Amino acid sequence: MKTVKILAVDDHEMTTLGYKFILEDTDFKDFKVQMDTAKSYDDAKKRIEEAASGILYDILLLDIQLSNPTDGPAKTGEDIGIYARKVSPESKIVFMSSFSDNYRINSIMQSVDPEGYMVKSEIDQKSLQAMVNTVLSSPPYYTQKALVAIRKKMAQDISLDENDKKILYYLSIGTKTKDMVNFISLSLPGIENRKRQLKSLFGLKNRMIRL
């Protein structure tokens, strides 16, 4: 069975241990999870560098705010993401942060272009499991608050009609596309076409828009 390697970076050890316990204990369909943890930028950078010379991490789970070092400039999870894009470009990056404001999330979208963003208050066992499955097969994965923040930013520049808004809403709560015909006055091909248009509008080409 395939092993999916994940690195979780957070300065709160109990947080990363919680992720590790849940995901390593999950019975995924086609793979098992092996998770490493790191508490600082330097520790994460070292692990990513070591993996780059061998077996890359499939997924990087990054908190944004990390404890400041005693000397040298402060580094954040965003810095780790930018660095990882250079040395481990095939790794999927998911931010796991308490920040849910529009500015911070959309700044991350521009600087790192992650495969996912989860607001910590919305993380539970099911969302963690869904995130891993989604980013490996058809990213991106956003929790609802993250998606709302992205939508608000996009709404400043993009005009969405009522059906577009309904599609984004039902995506945000995990509704399958085939079930949306029960709530939206469009055919299934029409909804799929709208999703393709939304992908293009949101700069998510070659990705699935889904929660």
Order of secondary-structure elements? EHEHEHEHEHEHHH
How would a crystallographer describe the biggest sheet?
A: 6 strands, parallel
Name of the CATH class of the largest domain? Alpha Beta
The span between the termini is 26 Å
Radius of gyration: 18 Å
| Mean of all residue-level pLDDT scores | 86
**Low-confidence region ranges:** 207-211
Helix content: 40-55%
- Structural class based on helices, strands and sheet pairing: alpha/beta
CATH fold descriptor of the largest domain = Rossmann fold
Q: Strand portion, in percent?
A: 15-25%
What's the number of domains? 2
Number of E strands: 6
Overall 3D shape? globular
Strand order of the largest sheet: 2-1-3-4-5-6
- CATH H level, superfamily name of the largest domain: Response regulator
**Total count of helical runs of at least 4 residues:** 8
Please state the second-level CATH architecture of the largest domain. Answer: 3-Layer(aba) Sandwich
Would you mind describing this structure in some detail?
- The structure is a single chain.
- The protein is α/β, with parallel strands linked by helices and 211 residues long.
- It contains 8 helices and 6 strands.
- It has 2 domains: 2-137, 3-Layer(aba) Sandwich (Rossmann fold); 158-201.
- The protein has helices at 13-24, 41-52, 77-87, 102-111, 125-137, 144-155, 162-172, 188-201, and strands at residues 2-9, 31-38, 59-62, 92-97, 116-119, 141-142.
- The chain has a 6-stranded parallel beta sheet with strand order 2-1-3-4-5-6, with helices on both faces.
- Helix 2 runs parallel beside helix 3 and helix 4 packs across helix 6 (144-155).
- The two termini are 26 Å apart.
- Residues 207-211 have low confidence and may be disordered.
